Amino acid sequence: MNDLDALVAAAQADFTAASTPADLENAKAQYLGKAGRLTELLKGMAALTPDEKKSRGAAINEAKQRVEAALNARRQALAEAELQVQLKAEALDVTLPGRHRGTGGMHPITRAMERIEAIFSSMGFDVADGPEIESDWYNFTALNNPLNHPARSMQDTFYVDTKGTDGISLNLRTHTSPMQVRYALQHARRYKADMDAGHPMPDIRVIAPGRTYRVDSDATHSPMFHQVEGLWVGEGISFKDLKAVYISFLQQFFETEDMQIRFRPSYFPFTEPSAEIDMMFGSGPLKGRWLEVSGSGQVHPQVVRNMGLDPERYIGFAFGSGIDRLAMLRYGVSDLRAFFDGDLRFLSQFK
Fold first, then answer.
1. What is the CA radius of gyration of the chain?
2. At CA 267, angle to CA 263 and CA 271, rounded to 5?
3. pLDDT, tens digit, for every residue of 277-314?
4. Helix (H, G, I), strand (E, B), or coil: what is residue 226?
5. pTM, rounded to two decimals
6. Domain 108-350, what architecture?
């Protein structure tokens, strides 16, 4: 074995002994670096004759190629070993069930709201939306609930610092009833020319679903809740129409006629006469229990005046129903707060 064969064998042994890429690069420097053994041999050729340089250079180049081949082979071996370690660490058990991405669903309150809108739309009612930050006039005064009226204490609410045009603080609306007056005023303006010409105004038929706010929180009340306000005003709209419309709504919403419905005398400042609407299922866990589902009544003459209409000519009814309460009864939920806790185990049942 000549000196070049010995050098190649030594390089191959050192490369094989390198257990990491860093060790391999250190071993490479001993042979192929600027001060490596093969590099020094090439530098020593300067003292040789031309014929000796030719034969010696060819031999050194051949040795260099063998060293580089051994180096590349070891690099490949170390890379494959590292890959095997990584694959083993990241191994997947293909027999395990796959992880499916969950699909979203509509919130039960949204489901109930869309169902209510569809039912009343089929009866010819428009669907209106209004501001959640409301003026005192629309939220209280226009609904025959002026300042210092005792009924205001029943709707303890949230106020904001900004003042309305009447100098009174704006509030988060306590019901969607302000849309009664807002919508009726727009309706009356739309048909003012026709009415001035002696033509009757088309009936006002509208529902206003949306979020409302009161300082209240327990199993059946929430500081934020959803309500749907209903209004039908025209010539000769009576309490009989209220009963027919609302009974039909409940039967369609709960998809059953196996229920009893009663209109119990009550008081609201914006209706006269007024009634609470109760229902009792004929079967199921709520059989035999009367449950309040809505307030209602004939629109108070003062409210009709605030709508810009003549109460001697135009009359109608209004109702306000808690959408959350209706959803609780439809889906058999006992605690209103479950709708808003964000527990996916609960909400996923309604997908």
1. 42
2. 85
3. 999 998 888 888 999 999 999 999 999 999 999 999 99
4. strand
5. 0.69
6. 2-Layer Sandwich (3.30)
